[in-house]
Design brief:
alpha/beta; Rossmann fold; 10-stranded mixed β-sheet; two-stranded parallel sheet; 9 helices; 12 strands; transmembrane helix; SAM-dependent_MTases_sf; 2-methyl-6-phytyl-1,4-benzoquinone methyltransferase activity; transferase; methyltransferase
Length: 347
């Protein structure tokens, strides 16, 4: 029997899962270091059914876990202005530096499976689409003329425009937290590697709900929170690495139903998430009714028109880049461990 491993501390109830003797699922939880977190009889405020014991977690949550880490944490690049300039330079090497370690073609295709891109005539929005790497996976299943790539970075979008399979896609500069699409517009909403830069993730997911048609599905792909202390330190300094239960809560609060979380990762991670991943899970939810999300929110977290002290900006930017460099080294380190550590052992 496989064990379910959650990186956070949220408590869960396992339902509709029976062992051969009919006495319950008998599932034990553990963190990514093998320490037990959840006993077989754990019981509280969330419903979980497991559709694939090795890879998928399907969750319907009514829990009230904390929706973010303490606001005092720096997260130097979790702001639109810092992210804009971060990608001004990263766009030059994004496809060649980030993707091989954290966002491969195999991972992309696996992460998009729950989106159920089953009709070439579907209208799809790829929010935070950047260089179009994820969009290349979308247009395998949907005609490019029906796909819109949205990003706040013109430098990233310029790379997308150069890709032949994407020539018929619509290219739009825009804000994930204030989408320029009408309500009930799209059949599918996809966003990969974008939420980590949103000052207000709940607002972005609320927007995903709004722009989808009744019965439409959102697929959000993002990082996972690490358990190793040094990786947590750099993650919290760099950008937002949500916990799995936070993704589920954001989707549930926005009004989505049938919320599912699927873990993804390079083969050499061997299911261990001690260091987190820039692309670590794929979360989906279905819009159950037409119209806007029932969730009411206040003003935006970040006013992009507000003047910024240039010295403070440069300091934050420099510290954010230093923290980000850790996650360039991690894939190299993990790949080397994969070559050395026996295949039957976790790393």
């Amino acid at each position: 029997m496989a064990s379910l491993m959650l990186s956070g501390t949220g408590k869960l109830t396992f339902l509709n899962c029976k062992t051969q003797n009919g006495n319950g699922f008998g599932l034990s939880g553990s963190d990514f270091n093998g320490k037990s977190l959840i006993s077989p009889k754990t019981s509280i405020n969330a419903k979980i059914r497991v559709s694939n014991l090795k890879r998928n977690i399907v969750v319907r949550s009514s829990s009230s876990v904390s929706s973010s880490r303490p606001s005092s944490q720096p997260r130097f690049i979790q702001h639109k202005k810092e992210a804009f300039w971060f990608y001004r330079f990263l766009s030059i090497v994004y496809d060649h530096v980030i993707n091989p370690g954290h966002w491969t073609e195999d991972m992309r295709d696996e992460a998009l499976e729950p989106a159920e891109l089953t009709d070439r005539n579907m209208i799809v929005v790829d929010v935070g689409g950047g260089t179009g790497f994820t969009t290349l996976g979308i247009v395998k299943h949907v005609d490019a003329k029906n796909v819109t790539i949205l990003d706040q970075s013109p430098h990233q979008l310029a790379k997308a425009k150069e890709k032949e399979p994407l020539k018929d896609c619509k290219i739009v500069e825009g804000d994930a937290e204030d989408l320029p699409f009408r309500t009930d517009y799209a059949d599918r909403y996809v966003s990969a590697g974008s939420i980590e830069y949103w000052p207000d993730p709940q607002r972005g997911i609320k927007e995903a709900y709004r722009v989808l048609k009744f019965g439409g599905k959102a697929c959000l792909i993002g990082p996972v929170y690490p358990t190793f202390w040094l990786s947590r330190f750099f993650a919290d300094d760099w950008m937002l690495f949500p916990k799995e239960e936070e993704y589920i809560e954001w989707f549930t609060k926005a009004g989505f139903k049938d919320v599912q979380l699927k873990r993804i990762g390079p083969k050499w991670y061997r299911g261990v998430r001690r260091h987190g991943l820039i692309m670590g899970c794929s979360v989906t939810g279905v819009k159950p009714a037409s119209g806007d999300s029932p969730l009411q929110l206040g003003p935006k977290e970040e006013d992009v028109e507000k003047p910024v002290n240039p010295l403070v900006f440069l300091l934050r930017f420099a510290l954010g880049i230093l923290a980000a460099s850790w996650y360039v080294l991690i894939p190299i380190y993990m790949w080397l461990k994969d070559q050395i550590v026996p295949k039957d052992q976790s790393i």
